[in-house]
Design brief:
The structure is a single chain. With 362 residues, this protein is an alpha/beta fold. The chain contains eleven helices and 13 strands. Strand 1, helix 1 and strand 2 form a beta-alpha-beta unit. Helix 1 packs across helix 11, helix 4 runs parallel beside helix 5 and helix 6 runs parallel beside helix 8. It is globular, with a radius of gyration of 19 Å. The structure holds nicotinamide-adenine-dinucleotide. The site of nicotinamide-adenine-dinucleotide (NAD) has 31 residues, from helix 1, strand 2, helix 4 and strand 5.
């Protein structure tokens, strides 16, 4: 039994599927690689010729989500909790992307300690390994570190306004601490880190039942069921299509010069949640009515990224309109509902197809 097949805590190795690797090419590691963004990132990295090791404990995803990637000769899966990752398992890794953390409030509030530790212990483990191996680290941070923002739109210079003891604190504070860990390892040990503060991202492959607003609305609209809007629907969000986001992440990681702070990645086009619901009803031709439900505690009232820094550093900005991104997501959700499956990204080629053709936690 190889090292990666040994039983190891929560990542017990039972569904481990190590694939024979095609070459001795230095691997790129994607922690949380079976999740919504992670699966898209793995698919894109494979398309670009990288050798990819996906590390995931499947706490919010399933191995079926990456079925199409498992057969790829340059793809390898380690069923592991990121905080239990063994340095030897990803020996020679040149780059580590850390996306391992539940992103939907429905999931992260279910196991708040796991959520907090995924960010804190997981980040520490990734940075320790990067320090030992001389690897570059990407951290998937979040707009949630801005909390209830007192400035609008949010720039990277804004420190945030976050409740340390509310229901979202396990996620928000975990992500804030992960940024601090990145900063310490960079300052103390020279570990090259890239932090993206990701704003709401959506697209094909989002799980149908994990409570993110875009998919929730689409599923309800396709079934002509009432669309549940929390609060009065005037809270705003800015929705970025997944392919645009992944492009921004790759550009951030390809920067060769040092970076001394996080970079916002998201789409600055702002929309109220009520407008989003109405848009989805129209695009699906649904007969659904919109119903208002009480607003959950600490639900952020406004979200819109200032992406000037990303535009300047990366020559990046989203190019997919909300209408076109929603249409592609509606097609994907409809197809999966018809098939009765929850599959995320089927394969690298289907990810490419969806890009050619054309949820995101509240
Ligand atoms: N999707 C968004 O809109 C968004 C916005 C801001 C930030 N982010 C961040 O991007 C990352 C990916 O988000 P997503 O939407 O793909 O979420 P997701 O829940 O779909 O994916 C997270 C993945 O990480 C895995 N995971 C969680 N804890 C783990 C652990 N301890 N060890 C190993 N694997 C673990 C899960 O099983 C899952 O496969 C997260 O870190 C999230 O905080 C996402």
């Amino acid at each position: 039994m190889g090292k990666a097949e040994k039983s190891n805590g929560r990542g017990n190795g039972k569904t481990n599927r190590r694939q024979p690797l095609e070459s001795l090419q230095q691997p790129v590691v994607v922690c949380g690689g079976a999740g919504f963004l992670g699966a898209h990132l793995c698919a894109r990295l494979l398309e670009e010729g990288e050798r990819v090791i996906c590390v995931d404990n499947f706490c919010t995803s399933a191995v079926e989500a990456i079925n199409g990637l498992l057969a790829h000769p340059r793809f390898e899966l380690l069923h592991r909790d990121v905080s239990l990752l063994d340095e030897e398992e990803i020996a020679h890794a040149s780059v580590i992307y850390n996306l391992a953390c539940a992103a939907s409030p429905l999931h992260y509030q279910r196991s708040p300690l796991d959520t907090l530790f995924a960010s804190v212990r997981g980040m520490d483990k990734v940075l320790r390994i990067a320090r030992a191996r001389g690897a570059r680290v990407f951290q998937a941070s979040t707009s949630e570190i801005y909390g209830h923002p007192t400035i609008h739109p949010q720039t990277e210079k804004y420190w945030g306004y976050v409740n340390t003891i509310g229901p979202r604190a396990c996620y928000d504070e975990g992500k804030r601490c992960a940024e601090t860990l990145c900063f310490i390892y960079r300052e103390e040990y020279g570990v090259p880190v890239r932090i993206a503060r990701i704003f709401n991202t959506y697209g094909p492959g989002m799980r149908l039942k994990d409570g993110r607003v875009v998919v929730n609305f689409i599923v309800q609209a396709l079934a002509d069921q009432p669309i549940t809007v929390y609060g009065d629907g005037t809270q705003t969000r800015s929705f970025c299509y997944v392919d645009d986001l992944i492009e921004g992440v790759l550009r951030l990681m390809s920067l060769t010069h040092d970076l001394d702070g996080p970079v916002n990645l998201g789409n600055p086009a702002e929309i109220t949640v009520l407008e989003l619901a109405e848009r989805i009803v129209r695009l699906t031709g649904s007969r659904s009515k919109i119903v208002l439900q009480p607003l959950p505690k600490d639900d952020p009232p406004r979200r819109r990224p200032d992406i000037s820094l990303a535009q300047k550093l990366l020559a990046w900005q989203p190019s997919t309109t909300l209408e076109s991104g929603l249409n592609m997501t509606i097609l994907d959700v409809d197809r999966r509902l018809q098939r009765g499956d929850e599959t995320l990204v089927a394969s690298a080629s289907s990810a490419a197809k969806s890009r050619l053709a054309g949820a995101n936690a509240l």
